[in-house]
């Protein structure tokens, strides 16, 4: 159904190709997953199938890509629209209408489908993706995850034979991600749809893949193959695979279920080992009075009461995960804490520096607020304004009053290999996020807020981000991160707060909060439950203890 013959893609004057040379065949009715580190060319591969490369992104494509027999060089994306449905990394860029219902119908209208068919499919899709309550809403008012669902729904309604999905679950809460993957699997199994998908959160997707293509790194040949075989050698892999490698399981498990079946021996070896402290088990610090206090906070957007009675204090050195369903109000809370929304009820206060009086975010000018609190927004583009990576870094140092070179050094630490001359617009998703993180980290504000900070990041970049944030917490900063990444929360946060429908419904030690609900439990916890292990790092440390005979 999809074929690449000696394909390579080069952007601008770059010497090295961003992708290829690549040969690849994806048969009809298979779900093929593209995996690899950030910036390795996954989106470029996907865009070559939908025809966006080279027609819209620029760059030179060599070799031949065919989809359902059509050469993408001769067919522009709109000439492929009857066969290929594409969901890109940035749903906002693709929306053509204003409301949810219109967006779901748009693709079918342009294909000229009969009215009653359109009507029926819109209703089906609203139900399938949990969007019925939002049908009349302007898309601009939806949360990130709600928008991602609309983007997915809008391509499903047209029933394309090929679906190209670039990180389709990156903004979805864990339960919504499972639902979307179940829908895709049904299309593959029942209708013979062909799916090509790139995704970093492999714990969510590998078990659904019929085939995986690994792009291991720049200049290295792609490795296509059967999922377990590719995972056995892949530098990027989900926690169950890491656990399987550690325990020496063969074949490697790809799902929690597979791993549980093999875990008896591992449980025995771990039974006597004390669970080593990880951040998730660490002491809560918070000495010296809170850095941030929100009391009975209420926030309205339009006619909706989005936050109600939210109470939250963050102390020095604390790292707190903020979790909850799509649309629960996480982004709204973070934005309110940096003064972007004025509270309709209650209050927010940040500790003043050196005994000065408290700061109220929405009444403080941005230049001054920067020294108290920083937010890395859900869309990193909201933070990037200049023409190049170097200019962005220089501006960040100047705004923050940091030594020149601070921001650039942070960027290199988070994700090596991002060029100074690149335009932020042309960066890969992970590269752009790393840049936004570096810009905010350069100011090292006492209170650091991160909205979904691992979208598009590979596991290595995530580990480096964790290390950076731990250092900041050790220096006394407090970190609040809104995330759907249960693995990240388990790794990094000692405390987790759960929002539901605008209210705080849980606030406590991460180990307790995440294991209390299957939706939030990380893979290792599910495999070893009821034993209280959360991460592979903990299990490794447990096995290494001399008292139990070592690994
Ligand atoms: N339009 C463009 N112009 C110039 N360079 C580009 C363009 N699009 C992508 N690149 C570069 O090509 C390389 C591959 O980017 P691509 O987006 O395909 O990576 P990716 O594997 O999808 O990354 P991520 O996992 O971060 O989404 C990156 O170094 C990126 O900076
Ligand atoms: N102008 C508006 N009118 C009505 N509802 C709105 C408006 N703006 C936002 N909302 C709603 O407020 C809720 C909270 O949105 P928010 O972006 O804070 O959620 P979130 O928890 O960050 O979600 P996600 O995980 O999807 O990013 C959502 O249900 C959203 O649809």
Automatic annotation (TrEMBL):
GO terms for cellular component: ATP-binding cassette (ABC) transporter complex. InterPro entries: AAA+_ATPase, ABC_transporter-like_ATP-bd, ABC_transporter-like_CS, ABC_transpr_CbiO/EcfA_su, ECF_ABC_transporter_ATP-bd, P-loop_NTPase. Pfam families: ABC_tran (PF00005). It is a peripheral membrane protein. Its main location: membrane. It is found in: Cell membrane. Gene3D superfamilies: P-loop containing nucleotide triphosphate hydrolases. Residues 2-243, 292-526 form the ABC transporter domain. The keyword Mitochondrion does not apply. Keywords: ATP-binding, Cell membrane, Membrane, Nucleotide-binding, Repeat, Translocase, Transport. Probably part of an ABC transporter complex. Responsible for energy coupling to the transport system. This is Cobalt ABC transporter ATP-binding protein.
